[in-house]
Each structure stands twice: as structure tokens, then as C-alpha cells.
Backbone:
């Protein structure tokens, strides 16, 4: 996949890519309509982040997974693609309030442009709109969406608290990632296969695949935050480290009992807003074996995800899904 690719997934088959591009354009049209409220004010607030761009990875995964079935062009597939993207964007409004963020996708966040009340209620509006659409898909879809939403919100809650006494901090963090990120990507793959008419075993395999690669993609971002020498990861290297955000390599380093790691452990428990301390911690962490441990973990997750795809017939869809797992595995190397 090159930077010039119009798709957020590595689709090399020209015919498949063309179909997906065309259907994704249809999704864009539908999303613009779903952001319309009864008043211009609500419509502007609801469309603010939706129209700011984004990779549309989740609806694209719905469309790609639908290609494993007998009717990938079904209108229910389009509806499901809108459901997952509306849910995702709605969660971003709430995330930005929690993070007190000023920018999202290069634009002012809703909380910065208006205020926290407008941002929260706009997120609620989009969650409501996604629920309306889910109801059109039937009771099974409603049940799946409700469980997904519960996991997403619970993941957001757990992200704000420290692990319980005796709880493994790494296990806690992986649970947060699975809830906040993996759950909705799993549902994206499930919806696509389900409404595209795929076999039941394919639906289950793609759902499991989606959760694994979705979580692994976030974990590879964790590694890039430490390893990248420039802002190629989309943010300044060590941003999470400076802000005290727990990430995969940090948590793996903190599990060390080696006396030689005493200075690194001291720094990881300190205030790293100081530039000199931050630079020292970043250097030590880059040299630490936790980086290789984190990469090995992500590689193992990607391998596990690809194994699930063996239920699919060989072809461009399976190749695209395997290639995405490979991207997840190698982007942090």
C-alpha cells in the first residue's frame, strides 16, 4: 500500500479496490445525510468531525468483509458501515472532552470550537443516529451493537483508572485497548460478513480477526511513539511517555526486576514534562529489551489474526486482510 492509495487497507487487486472505492464514496454520501439534524446548528456540530476527514477504516472493513459473502453490495452492508463510523466518530467527541484536546484531524475539536456541553451532546446525537440505523438491521444487529457499545464505554472508563490492587497493569491495559479499539473493529468485520451473506464460520473468524488486528494496530502505535525518530507516527516521538500515558513497551519495562533497570524505572515513575528527564527516559527505553518484547507481542498477534483467515478461500479479499495483518506486524519494526 502506498501513501497515494485512496484506501486505508492494502488492497492490491485493481477490481476489488475499484469496487471498494465506489462503495466507500456511497458511504460518504450516506454519512453526510446521517449528520443532519432538525436545525442547522445541530447539523454543523454533528458534521464537524465527520467531514474533517479520517481514514474510514471501520466502514472500509465492513465493505471488505462483505466481499466474503454472496451479496456484498446489499444495502444492509452500507447501513452497517454507517453504523460503525457514526459510533466511532461519536466516541471521538467524548474522547476529546476527556482529553481536553484542542485539535482533531487538523481541525478544532468540538469542545474547543463550542464547549464541552455541545461536544458531549453532539456525540450523544451521533450515538442515537447510529442506534436508529442499527434498529433497521434487526434484533441481532441491535444486540451486537449494544454489546460493542458497552465494551467501548467500559474500555474508556477503565482507561481513566489505575488497576485494582493485585491486578496486572499490562493485562489491565490490554483490556482497555480491546474494549476501546478492538471491539468496534471486530464488529465492523462481523457486520460486513454477516450482512454480506458469508458463512457462519467466516463471520466468527472475521470478528475474531478484527478484534486482534484492531488492538494490535493500537499497540504498534505505542511502539512507534517510542521508536520513531521523527513525527512520522503522526505525533512527536515520546508524547505518550511525556504525558504519563501507559503504553505497551512502558508497561513491559516496568515489569522488570533487573537492578540494572533502576534508573529507567525511576524515570518512568517521575514527571517527564522536564525536557532533560524526558530525553533520558526516551533514550533508555529505546535501548531496553522491552521494545523487542513489545514488537514480538504485536508480531504474535498479527500471526494469530492471519491464522484465523484460513477459513477463507484464497483470493484478493483474503490477501488484503493478510496484508493488513502484515502491515500491523511490520510498521513498528
Residues:
Amino acid at each position: 500500500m502506498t501513501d497515494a492509495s485512496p484506501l486505508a487497507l492494502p488492497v492490491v487487486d485493481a477490481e476489488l479496490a475499484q469496487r471498494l472505492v465506489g462503495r466507500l464514496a456511497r458511504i460518504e454520501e450516506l454519512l453526510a445525510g446521517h449528520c443532519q439534524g432538525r436545525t442547522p446548528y445541530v447539523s454543523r456540530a454533528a458534521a464537524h468531525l465527520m467531514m474533517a476527514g479520517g481514514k474510514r477504516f471501520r466502514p472500509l472493513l465492513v465493505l471488505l468483509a462483505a466481499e466474503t459473502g454472496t451479496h456484498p453490495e446489499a444495502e444492509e452492508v452500507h447501513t452497517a458501515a454507517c453504523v460503525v463510523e457514526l459510533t466511532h466518530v461519536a466516541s471521538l467527541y467524548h474522547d476529546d472532552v476527556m482529553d481536553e484536546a484542542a485539535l482533531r484531524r487538523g481541525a478544532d475539536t468540538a469542545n474547543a470550537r463550542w464547549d464541552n456541553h455541545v461536544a458531549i451532546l453532539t456525540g450523544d446525537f451521533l450515538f442515537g443516529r447510529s442506534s436508529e440505523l442499527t434498529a433497521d438491521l434487526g434484533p441481532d444487529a441491535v444486540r451486537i451493537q449494544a454489546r460493542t457499545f458497552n465494551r467501548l464505554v467500559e474500555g474508556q472508563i477503565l482507561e481513566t483508572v489505575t488497576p485494582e490492587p493485585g491486578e496486572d497493569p499490562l493485562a489491565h491495559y490490554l483490556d482497555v485497548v480491546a474494549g476501546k479499539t478492538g471491539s468496534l473493529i471486530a464488529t465492523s468485520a462481523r457486520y460486513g460478513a454477516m450482512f454480506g451473506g458469508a458463512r457462519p464460520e467466516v463471520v466468527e473468524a472475521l470478528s475474531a480477526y478484527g478484534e486482534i488486528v484492531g488492538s494490535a494496530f493500537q499497540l504498534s502505535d505505542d511502539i512507534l511513539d517510542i521508536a520513531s525518530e521523527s513525527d512520522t507516527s503522526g505525533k512527536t516521538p515520546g508524547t505518550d511517555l511525556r504525558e504519563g500515558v501507559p503504553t505497551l513497551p512502558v508497561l513491559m519495562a516496568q515489569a522488570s526486576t533487573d537492578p540494572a533497570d533502576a534508573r529507567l524505572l525511576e524515570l518512568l515513575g517521575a514527571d517527564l514534562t522536564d525536557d532533560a528527564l524526558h530525553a533520558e527516559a526516551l533514550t533508555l527505553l529505546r535501548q531496553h529489551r522491552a521494545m523487542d518484547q513489545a514488537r514480538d507481542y504485536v508480531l504474535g498477534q498479527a500471526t494469530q489474526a492471519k491464522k484465523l483467515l484460513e477459513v477463507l478461500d484464497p483470493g484478493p479479499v483474503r490477501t488484503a486482510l493478510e496484508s493488513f495483518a502484515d502491515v500491523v506486524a511490520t510498521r513498528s519494526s
Notes: The radius of gyration is 20 Å. The longest strand covers residues 103-104. Strands lie at 103-104, 107-108.
